[in-house]
């Protein structure tokens, strides 16, 4: 017997009408909740008062524990890679004062505070290495410190950009196996992130997880390289793809079809108003590698392929579909050309919309609870017919979002679903 | 009049090496710095902006052209200063306090430079005090504030308020931009203008300068 939450997700992913819209918050690093908001939600629902675990330190995402998942009525849980964005595992926890909020972080979460109050974090928890992330005063997230070694066209060596792509280690595989087992025990849908198949994800290019990254690591330099050094980028992707496919095969051999969707790539292709490249460039530079990965997944597993890209990307949707992606997230409806009704009408039978539930740049942080409710109900009305919709906000719930608005959002989905909850 | 199409093409095609070589060749042939900027580089960057608007160019191409243009400007700027040439406007630009994101800001800075403005880029995580000091030091008439995060948007309001307190608000036009920023937000915080892209920012800056003359 498949648990109801998982069945709900499976139906949505298969474009069948589920009994109600499945909801995900906390299933991945792009569908998460800032640790301050997780703490506020725990208070709101009257859950045990305890420090929240920061499972993703880059964006300071709080772990949605089982009690909170049940309190919010969420249908999806996550499986995360062993190492964080800063290259250390979350194996043991310690308390940390996050500007007045006591949270739990990995014992390898090593920081220093600058005289101006900025917090610096170190790769692999090694304070002898240069810091790879910075959280300025007034911010609530880390940003990568770009460590671009000097290079010339003559000295540029593609091998330097391949350090992070290697066969999965036994410890990582064991982590995946145990994490999947724990997720299964929660009796809900599972979104898994294994890592390694994000081609040119700009958050990963500077490699905040490496102590001394080499090759092209500067953000602007990378973007330019996708146009001016395309052969170089192709070589990186070719190697990454080959290693990634080998790792997926080993992971699948270890866990089988026990997860429902796999977050394969978070490369952002959209700005607020346009794309980072043309469909022609996408088809040349990305599609072959995406297609190789997605084709392998479809041929060998029951997993659904999850693609994240912020921004205005409707013009690339045909490319995403041709590449074999099943799911698109976060469906940034506020960006140019991303009208929800138009997207549903044109792509609703070919792409699952995992997101799009409410605007996290405007309505959720700055609107009233009633404005949130109205927007959520409308989005559910648009996206839910025939399945193909997993409710989630448009990207992570950001720090500073009023808890009343988050609760209004969740309550509105339950209202739409006709469920008495909480 | 000599034809320095090679410089125009190099900027348009984002070829920094050729742009620098073409600039040096042109100067050696007797070209004036202002002539090269006004008649070749600014039109090239205008064409880059036009291609960006019609989605023929994207961010990578914008960055490449901006880099090529900067390569030439590094050679021409000292000559320009020696001639006492006046820029289209004097801009102070930065990402506001608490925010480290700078790709969009960098693009706007480059496009403004390409548009003939003198640009002082203060970088990211810039305090109101630094903006004020730079306005005074540079004699700026345009200030551009960027923010990517919803949590740092309030720093835009704080900065504008600080400009008022410091008595420099009336000497500058304030432009704002960044992913979560809207025209409505710009109006609410008392900015003079908003653009959702780098090319639009150049048009806006030109309009604001014209209005203030």
Short description:
The complex is a heterodimer of chains A (422) and B (213). Chain A is α/β, with parallel strands linked by helices. Helix content of chain A is 35%, strand content 13%.
Portion in helices of chain A = 25-40%
What best-fitting shape of chain B do the alpha-carbon axes yield?
A: globular
Question: How do the strands of the widest beta sheet of chain B line up side by side?
Answer: 2-1-3-4-5
| Rg estimate of chain B, integer Å | 17 Å
For the termini of chain A, the CA-CA separation is: 26 Å
Report the uncertain regions of chain B: none
Topology of helices and strands:
The complex is a heterodimer of chains A (422) and B (213).
Chain A: H1 4-13, H2 35-44, E1 52-56, E2 61-62, H3 66-72, E3 76-79, E4 93-98, E5 101-106, E6 111-113, E7 119-121, E8 133-135, E9 143-144, H4 170-185, E10 189-192, H5 219-228, H6 230-255, E11 261-265, H7 279-300, E12 304-308, H8 317-322, E13 327-329, H9 340-347, E14 352-354, H10 363-366, H11 369-383, E15 389-390, H12 403-417
Chain B: H1 5-12, H2 16-28, H3 33-53, H4 59-83, E1 90-95, H5 103-114, E2 118-121, H6 128-138, E3 142-146, H7 154-165, E4 173-177, H8 183-188, E5 193-194, H9 198-212
Parallel strand pairs in B: 1-2, 1-3, 3-4, 4-5
Describe this structure in words.
The longest helix of chain A is centred in the middle third of the chain and has 26 residues. In chain A, α4 crosses α6, α6 packs parallel to α7 and α11 packs parallel to α12. In chain A, strands 3-10-11-12-13-14-15 form a 7-stranded parallel β-sheet. A 4-stranded mixed β-sheet of chain A has the order 2-1-5-4. Chain A starts with a helix and ends in a 5-residue tail after the last helix. In chain A, α8 links the parallel β12 and β13. Chain A contains 12 helices and 15 strands. Chain A is globular and about 65 Å long. Chain A has 422 residues and is an alpha/beta fold. With 213 residues, chain B is an alpha/beta fold. Chain B has a 5-stranded parallel β-sheet with strand order 2-1-3-4-5, with helices on both faces. In chain B, α3 packs antiparallel against α4. Chains A and B meet through α5 of A and α4 of B.
